[in-house]
Amino acid sequence: MARRRFRSNQRHEPTTERSFQEYILSTPAPQTSRTELLRLVRGGEDTFLELKVKLSNTEKIAQEIVALANTGGGVIVFGVNDQLRVEGVDDPERVQEDLVRICREEVQPPLVPFIDRIALDNGRRIVALDIESKRRPYRTRDGRFYLRIGAEKREASREEISSLLDESRPLRYEDVPALGATMADIDEAHLWSYLREFEGGAFEEATVVGYPTAEVLERDLLLATNDGQEIVPTVAGLLLFGWDERVTELLPRAAVTATRFSGDTQQSPIVERVKFSGNLLSVYEGLTRFIRRYCDLSEVRPKSGSYTTEESPVPARSSYHRGVVAEVIANMLAHRDLALRDLPSRVHVFDHSLEFVNSRRSVGFSPVAQKAIRYGMPERLNPRLAAVLTSAAYGLKLPLQGLPALLREARRFSNRKAEIVSFNDEFRLRIYGA
Q: Cβ(274)–Cβ(406) under 8 Å?
């Protein structure tokens, strides 16, 4: 049995500072038996066990904690010397408080300390800190990474840091193979039209023989995976280049519902409601046509009373900047969290505003992040999908690039600031008409 685990029950590690503090204050630590701990100590130091006589140097203790956490977890026992003799600690309560502070302030991301204070028959007391590694890589407050090799710690090399970072990157939903999809579901004409836009640079048509769609999609665009038997398009690959009917069938959650309300709230009567499905180009074009049916789109702010629309079943209530609407639709399609169920993307057309509602996990998307994206700091869930969708080669005409330009032009056009709100795992962007 691996010596690194001597605690049988596992607990969830909170991710926010507030929940971290509440967790420490309210959750009782599980007890470790003296026999269990002494058996661990008698084996001596190794990759998963460090022995300390006392807690004296906070910086070195933080390094030991980081090293154990980056190597798979382990235990630090205070009150035992290098000769495996139990000397005990004078103030175990103070040691526990210091360890909690070190794990919270000196280690990034913060660790939840699992701490046991154990009294022996001779009256001496020792403290055991159990370290888990659920969110590695960990680093010290000054940004240094450590690993534990045998009974010694050392600073991680550049290659080892790169390996730790690669391990920490989660598999994104856009990279998951689309269940039930095959290469026959890819619109080859659309894909090769995209590739030809890179002629003379990344793409050389003269070297291509037989239009190897599967190989190019997997090898060059990273939009397909090989399961050992066949190449299968990923979720992003199917959304970008799939046939409309197959995308509708295989990825029903990718549909977007557009609703025209006769008023300024969702409680107003519904004029029309349409669900758009298919690949992202088809959905983009469908949403654009729907908005144009009820609103005027132009590059210049119209003069009061000078605009009407002939194709709309009702008079247009507002006018919007054409580039802003194009960018906000593309932004919505690129940054949906498709892993969330039962949270469809929606477009609401009101008399004097447009609202775009997207699925987006609120956990981790803090108010600070909401401000940062206004300055162009990316918070992308689907980087591959977003890169292709916003490329001129894909076919969308996006005169504006990015959220900051969208917000700036929307305010200039309507004299009203766009609103951004994120709650209940939904991201809402509202722009106002002139």
A: no
Cα–Cα distance for residue pair 181/207, rounded to 1 Å: 28
Distance CA 6, CA 10 (A): 11
Residue type, 59: E
Q: Which two tokens stand for residue 270?
A: 């519904």
Give the contacts of 343 (CB within 8 A, at least 6 positions apart).
337, 359, 425, 426
R_g of the chain computed on alpha carbons: 29
The model's pLDDT over 270-282, given as tens digits with 9 standing for 90+, comes to 999 999 999 999 9
CA gap 188, 232 in Å, rounded: 14
Fold of 17-168: 3.30.950
Q: What stretch of H or E contains 300?
A: none
Query: Three-class SS of residue 223?
Result: coil
Q: Where in the chain is the domain with CATH 3.30.565.60?
A: 252-432
Q: Are 99 and 113 in contact (CB under 8 A)?
A: yes
In 10 A of CB 62, how many CB atoms? 23
Full DSSP string of 137-187:
--EETTS--EEEETTEEEEPPHHHHHHHHHHHSPPPGGGSB-TT--GGGB-
Topology given in CATH for the domain delimited by 252-432: Heat Shock Protein 90 (3.30.565)
Half-sphere exposure of 368 (CA within 13 A, CB side): 2
The confidence score (pLDDT) of residue 206 equals 59
Euclidean distance between CA atoms 203 and 195, whole angstroms = 7
**Please, are residues 223 and 384 in contact by the beta-carbon 8 Å criterion?**
yes
Over residues 75-109, the pLDDT tens digits come to 899 998 888 888 889 899 999 999 999 998 999 88
User: Contact 224/176 with Cβ under 8 angstroms?
Assistant: no
Q: What is the pTM of this model?
A: 0.65
Length of the chain: 434
Return d(Cα 32, Cα 36) in angstroms, integer.
7
